[in-house]
Amino acid sequence: MQPLQRIFGGLRIASTGLKAERARVDTIAKNIANAQVTRVESTGEAYRREVVDLAPMIRRTAAGNEIVGVEVRGTSADMRTPFQEVHDPGHPDAGPDGIVRYPNVNTVREMADLITAARAYEANLSVQDNFERMLDRALRLME
Fold first, then answer.
1. Confidence (pLDDT) at 142
2. Of 113, 43, 41, nearest to 79 (Cα)?
3. Extents of the domains making up the chain
4. Are 52 and 137 in contact (CB under 8 A)?
5. Most-buried pick from 11, 45, 110, 136 (CB within 10 A)?
6. Residue 93: predicted pLDDT
7. The pTM is what?
8. How far apart are the first and last CA of the chain?
9. Distance CA 141, CA 143 (A)
10. What digits encode the pLDDT tens for the residues 95-112?
């Protein structure tokens, strides 16, 4: 690996972390915004909570595998969490039994996820700020 690649490797990893956390925040905001949507036009059913699919970015080298960041692979519907069922026969989306299926979005869980995503974003931003300060000090020493 080139010396400059090593120097900037931490910065690259932090930047991929920023991108991943921004994707998480955007997805959480979408989930919260759709927490009461009982019918999506494309599917005809209640909104399904979305989750961000993340994966490690791996570089294969002669010395072995090296993790060089995190990759956002996209979002997918949360199929494990069931819809919330509420008895409300007067609702336009109620079934014959009077049950309305609400999204599988738990706003408390989403807010907790939002806090962790925001803190992880701040941590990655702090890494970038510290890198910039260290690089500035190194350049001043070279004068």
1. 83
2. 43
3. 3-142
4. no
5. 110
6. 94
7. 0.85
8. 27
9. 6
10. 999 999 999 999 999 999
